[in-house]
């Protein structure tokens, strides 16, 4: 199974997990349209993999709550694949790499998420 098949599987799993909260998202020349409502979204970045595994239970909800209080609608994050696959075909979605838990924490705050999925992330991340 190659990296793209795994990413697709994660996305499908995420969709199934959140299917009760699925949205119809489109756009026109000026706005994002979510369920028929024109929106200007305000996004901020929180990188789930950069948290300390021992305190993610407290760190993620606090950061996301502060983002919401600061006026954000959306939390965007890279998907750090080199953290999820540190060696060929050895996968890690535990602790601070638990992207599903991170997305559920965003959803629990009533915010949207944007995943920046790509094979390379700069973001001051070694070998990203």
Brief write-up:
The protein has 128 residues and is α/β, with parallel strands linked by helices. The protein contains four helices and six strands. The protein has one domain (3-116): TIM Barrel (Alpha-Beta Barrel), CATH 3.20.20.
In angstroms, what is the radius of gyration? 15 Å
Given helix and strand content, the structural type is: alpha/beta
Helical fraction equals 25-40%
Major β-sheet annotation: 3 strands, antiparallel
Reading side by side through the largest sheet, how are the strands ordered?
A: 1-2-3
The count of helical stretches stands at: 4
Key structural traits:
TIM Barrel, Glycoside_Hdrlase_35, beta-galactosidase activity, 128 residues, alpha/beta, single chain
Would you kindly provide a written description of the structure presented here, covering whatever features stand out?
- It comes from Gossypium aridum (American cotton).
- Keywords: Signal.
- The chain is of the alpha/beta class.
- It has a single domain, classed as TIM Barrel (Alpha-Beta Barrel), CATH 3.20.20.
- It has helices at 3-17, 56-69, 81-84, 99-108; strands at 25-27, 32-34, 37-39, 43-45, 74-78, 112-116.
- A hairpin with a 4-residue loop joins strand 1 and strand 2.
- The longest helix has 15 residues, at 3-17.
- The two termini are 21 Å apart.
Blueprint of the fold:
Elements: H1 3-17, E1 25-27, E2 32-34, E3 37-39, E4 43-45, H2 56-69, E5 74-78, H3 81-84, H4 99-108, E6 112-116
Parallel strand pairs: 4-5, 5-6
Antiparallel strand pairs: 1-2, 2-3
Family: Belongs to the glycosyl hydrolase 35 family.
InterPro entries: GH, Gly_Hdrlase_35_cat, Glycoside_Hdrlase_35
Protein name: beta-galactosidase
């Amino acid at each position: 199974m190659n990296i793209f098949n795994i990413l697709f599987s994660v996305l499908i799993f995420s969709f199934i997990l959140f299917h009760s909260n699925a949205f119809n998202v489109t756009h026109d020349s000026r706005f994002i349209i979510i369920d028929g409502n024109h929106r200007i979204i305000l996004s901020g970045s929180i990188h789930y993999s950069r948290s300390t595994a021992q305190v993610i239970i407290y760190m993620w909800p606090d950061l996301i709550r502060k983002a919401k209080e600061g006026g954000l609608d959306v939390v965007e994050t890279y998907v750090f694949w080199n953290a999820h696959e540190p060696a060929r075909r050895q996968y890690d979605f535990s602790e601070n790499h638990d992207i599903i838990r991170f997305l559920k924490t965003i959803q629990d705050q009533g915010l949207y998420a944007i995943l920046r999925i790509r094979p390379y992330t700069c973001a001051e991340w070694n070998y990203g």
